[in-house]
Amino acid sequence: MNNQTRIALYGLGYIGLPTASLLAKNGYKVVGVDINPQTVEKINSGISPIMEPGLETIISDMVANKMLSATTNGVEAAVNSNIMIVVVPTPVDNNNCSDLTAVISACETISKGLKKDDLVIIESTSPPYTCENVVIPILEKSGLKSGKDFGVAYTPERALPNNTIYEMTHNARIIGGINPESSAQAAEIYGSITEGKVVTVKDTVTAEMVKLMENTYRDTNIALANELAMVCESINIDVIEAIEASNYHPRVNIHTPGPGVGGHCLSIDPYFIVEIAKENGVPARLIQTAREINEHMPNHVASLVEKSLKNKGKSISSSTVGVLGVAYKGNVADYRETPSKNLIDTLNGLGAKVLANDPYVDPEIIRRMEAEPVDLKEALNCDCVVLMTDHDDYRSITPEMIKKSILICNRPILDQDLFKSSGIEFKGVGRN
C-alpha cells in the first residue's frame, strides 16, 4: 500500500459506510461523500447514522485518528484523492428497469476532479456493461482516456446486514478491471480489508454479472421454496418438515419459504438480468417467474389472514390485524423493499385496521407504511396476529400472549404444535 493513497468513497449507506470505515482502519486516508448533510455531520462527530454491530466504534476511532472524514463536496473529494469508490443505490424504476441516476451523478462529480493515474472503482450493483457503456463515457468527459490515463474496476459487495463487518473482513472478493493494472490495484485495496480470497475475473462485465447471478440464485431458490410451500398447504403437509428432510440429500439445499423477499439486493438484482436479457432477445423466463412468485407472497399471506378470520366468523373489514415486523429480515432496522409494506397495503385495501410492531424500526416509518405503530402487547391483542419478521424478540411469544386465537406465523421460529394444542389457529406460509 502506498502511503500517499487517498480514497474518496461516494455513498455512505449500509455498505458504503462500513467499507469506508474498514479502509480507514486498515491505513487508508478516507473521505466519505454523501448528499445528506445530516449523515455527514453524524459521521464527523464519530456517530454512525446506521445500526450495524461494531460499526460505530470503528467510526469513532477513525474520526478521532483523522483517518476518516465525511463531506458533501464530491468534487473536492475527488481532487484530493487518487482512488474513488462508488457505492450508491441502484434501485429499479416502475418498469423494473435499473435506475442508474445515483451512479451517473457520482461519476459526473468524479469526472470534475479526475486526474491522471487515478482509479475509479464501482461497487454499486448494476446491469452488465454499465461500466463500459455508462461509467467510462462519463469519466472521459474529464478529457482523460480510460485504460491509458486512469483505471476502472468493478467489485460487488457481499455483506449481510447485522453481520456486515465480519463478512466484509472474511468473505471472498470478486474484482474485474478494464485492464490488468486496474484489477491489480483494486485487488490490493480490497485484499487489505478481507481475509477471504480475492478473485480476479476477466473484465468489469463478468464481475457485474457475478453479483447478479449470486442474488438471482438465492431469489430463485426462495421462489421454489415458496411455491412448494403453497402446494404443501393445499395438501396439508408441513413444508418446513418436508424441506428439512429433503435437505438431508447431499445435493439438495432448498431455502426457507416466507412471506416474500425484501432488501436492496434479492428483490432487485434479478430484474437487472431480466432487463439485459430482454435487450439481447433472450427471455429470462425462470428468473422472471421467480420474481413474480416472491412478489405474490404478501398477497398469499393476506389470503391466509382473511380465511382464518372467516373460520372464526369474522370479517376482515371489521377486524384488527397486528403485524409483527416491518424490517425485511430479523434483528435489523432495514426496511427497504420489505414484504410487510405490500401486506399492509393489501390489508388496508381489504378494510382491516392494521397495527404494527417492530423493535428496530422507527414508529414514524411504520406510520408512513400506513399502519399504526404499537407495542408488542397491543399487536398481540388484535383479532389476527401476523408474524412477518424473525426478530429474536418474537421467539419468546407464548400461546397465552395471543389473546384472540389466530396466529399467522410466516417464519419458522415458533413451535406450531405448542400453539395448536393451546387452541390457537396457527397457520403460515406452508404451515397447516
TrEMBL record:
Top-level taxonomic group: Archaea
EC top class named in words: oxidoreductase
UDP-glucose/GDP-mannose dehydrogenase C-terminal domain boundaries: 322-416
Reactions catalysed: UDP-N-acetyl-alpha-D-mannosamine + 2 NAD(+) + H2O = UDP-N-acetyl-alpha-D-mannosaminouronate + 2 NADH + 3 H(+)
Record EC number: 1.1.1.336
InterPro entries (UniProt xref): 6-PGluconate_DH-like_C_sf, NAD(P)-bd_dom_sf, UDP-Glc/GDP-Man, UDP-Glc/GDP-Man_DH_C, UDP-Glc/GDP-Man_DH_C_sf, UDP-Glc/GDP-Man_DH_dimer, UDP-Glc/GDP-Man_DH_N, UDP_ManNAc/GlcNAc_DH
UniProt-recorded Gene Ontology molecular function terms: NAD binding; oxidoreductase activity, acting on the CH-CH group of donors, NAD or NADP as acceptor; UDP-N-acetyl-D-mannosamine dehydrogenase activity
Keywords from the UniProt entry: NAD, Oxidoreductase
GO BP term (any one): polysaccharide biosynthetic process
One Pfam entry name: UDPG_MGDP_dh
Family: Belongs to the UDP-glucose/GDP-mannose dehydrogenase family.
Subunit relationships: Homotetramer; probably dimer of dimers.
Name recorded for this polypeptide: UDP-N-acetyl-D-mannosamine dehydrogenase
Species whose genome carries this gene: Methanobacterium lacus (strain AL-21)
